[in-house]
């Protein structure tokens, strides 16, 4: 089982990020769970979701031993960094998180300049998708094309397929930022 927490401010695509991850898991015929949590403020408030992707049954929607923490701001790191298991991944939005910030020594920290990369491909709303590209490349939880196809299917099902070309560009920018 892979446990993922996605966290940030409302309006940063946090809940959508979780949905794209479970779409990709469903495409692999895995069991999935998406458990959202957000403040009443919507934009600007906090938002997070627990995502589980498993070959077996999922007993609880709550993530306790986090493999991957996808964060889009500093407060998300403050809240969830201690829930990452040793050897797990922390994805940091280096566009807005202080570069001097210290992290646990027993986790893998991946810094992604999401805003700069999204601007480069002219998709300013695609910062979460940039981060997803980096996540897929660094963790290998999905094949590159497999996730891209699931993401496009997700947006098509939401009636937003017209953005798929720009979203794939954002995904590729994030994916290619990992060496």
Automatic annotation (TrEMBL):
Pyruvate/ketoisovalerate oxidoreductase catalytic domain boundaries: 10-176
UniProt KW Manganese keyword: no
Pfam families: POR
Keywords noted in UniProt: Oxidoreductase
Oxidoreductase in keyword set: yes
InterPro entries registered for this protein in UniProt: 2-oxoglutarate_synth_KorC, Pyrv/ketoisovalerate_OxRed_cat, Pyrv_flavodox_OxRed_cen
GO molecular function terms listed in the Swiss-Prot or TrEMBL record: oxidoreductase activity, acting on the aldehyde or oxo group of donors
Protein name in the entry: Oxidoreductase subunit
Organism ancestry: Bacteria, Bacillati, Bacillota, Clostridia, Eubacteriales
């Amino acid at each position: 089982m892979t446990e993922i927490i996605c966290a940030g401010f409302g309006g940063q695509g946090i809940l959508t990020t979780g949905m794209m991850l479970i779409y990709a898991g469903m495409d692999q015929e895995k069991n999935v769970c998406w458990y959202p949590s957000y403040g009443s403020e919507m934009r600007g408030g906090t938002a997070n979701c627990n995502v589980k992707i498993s070959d077996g049954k999922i007993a609880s929607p709550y993530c306790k031993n986090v493999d991957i923490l996808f964060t889009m701001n500093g407060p998300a790191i403050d809240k969830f960094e201690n829930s990452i298991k040793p050897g797990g991944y922390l994805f940091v939005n280096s566009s807005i998180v202080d570069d001097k910030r210290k992290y646990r020594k027993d986790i893998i920290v991946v810094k992604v300049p999401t805003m700069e990369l999204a601007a480069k491909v002219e998709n300013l709303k695609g910062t979460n998708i940039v981060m997803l590209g980096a996540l897929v490349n660094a963790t290998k939880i999905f094949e590159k094309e497999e996730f891209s196809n699931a993401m496009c299917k997700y947006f098509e099902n939401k009636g937003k397929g017209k953005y798929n070309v720009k979203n794939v560009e954002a995904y590729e920018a994030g994916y290619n930022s990992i060496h």
